[in-house]
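Shipment paperwork, digital attachment
Item: protein structure file
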Amino acid sequence: MFKAAIAEPIPIDYAEKVDFGFFLINVWEDLINHNQVDECLALVTTLQQQQPDLYQREFQYLDDLLVKYHLFHHQIDAVRNDLSRFQANPVEGIDQLSAVLDDLQFYGATEPLVDFCRAVYQPIAQSRKVFDGVETEFGDIVIFDQFENVYQQLQQGETIDWEAFKTEAIQYGLADNASQWTEIEHNLTVDVETGDKFAQRFKRNPSAVLRHLLLNFCRHMRTQHHMSFVRSQEEEITIEPSAKSPQNQPTAEAEPTPPAQQPAWEPPKPGKSPLQEAKGLTKSKSKRSGKKKSGQGFN
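Attachment content:
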């Protein structure tokens, strides 16, 4: 019955009157809960073709699944297309964007993730419809990608244009503090001290030590496991003994695969690492929340 209802164009005023968006999302969630992936994709196709205005109003709840589905199948061009409505309407889609970022990081889709965050940072930061600080999550991703670029240049013996780095980093929320630039350069080039020196430094300035630990961890994961800084700073890594290493030598998989029993379009989300406490670099902390006033349907 529902398929028949959406097979023909539905006037927007009538859809608003009967709160069609509410029924649409209920059907959508029911299909997801029963792992009816093909039916979900067919529903999306029909809505995009027959109900483009309705689809646009509810896109964040529908395109979220498409992002997961195409990430699972490593279809990056399709992922970019799925992100296009979020990119064009980041404030309207803010309620689902944290989940979308998590999915992109989980699958290691760093390039489309960073490009997306660059595109939506300013519109979100300048909007009065979202809580202050929501943009921080997007800015952090761009900044840590910058850290990785600088680190790779340093590893290759190239000269760093620190002024260009500062100018761009400030655009994405990094505080303009002279001592901070010195600290960043130090943390990207010098390993964390161990033993008594570490304990003494931690007592003096725990926040600075945690920031150093975080970048040290990102450097290690990039060098040893080819994992991007963007992903390392966000995910909790599962450490397992390697068959090629001594039993006490930990290694980590750079690209974990979702367990087979989980739906392909809804992978389990890794937990937050304690190293998240080290990300005190930006001017304000993200609340990981969306609009000041938001809701489903057409209310």
